[in-house]
Write a structure and sequence with these properties.
N-terminal domain of TfIIb, 3 helices, 27% helix, Ribosomal_eL37/eL43
Length: 79
């Protein structure tokens, strides 16, 4: 029994060496317009979205980088 390394399901074809669910090892995720339900199940926001949860807050603040003004110290603000 072979497991797909990306999804952890038994959908990796032994002879083709290709996942029938996600298309691994292809560079892009396998998706077709004739399967709207499957696209809905796999789309962004159906998992943990550990990166995307952070983006809306950063967008609101204009994608600021570096340390906050107060954390730099008193001398850094005067200079």
């Amino acid at each position: 029994m072979l497991m797909g390394s990306q999804i952890g399901r038994r959908s990796l074809h032994v002879q083709k060496h290709e996942c029938s669910s996600c298309g691994y090892p292809a560079a892009k995720i396998r998706k077709y317009n004739w399967s709207e339900k499957a696209k809905r199940r796999k789309t962004v926001g159906t998992g943990r979205t550990r990166y995307l949860k952070d983006v809306s807050r950063r967008f609101k603040n204009g994608f600021q980088t570096g340390t906050p003004k107060g954390a730099r110290g008193v001398n850094a603000e005067k200079a």
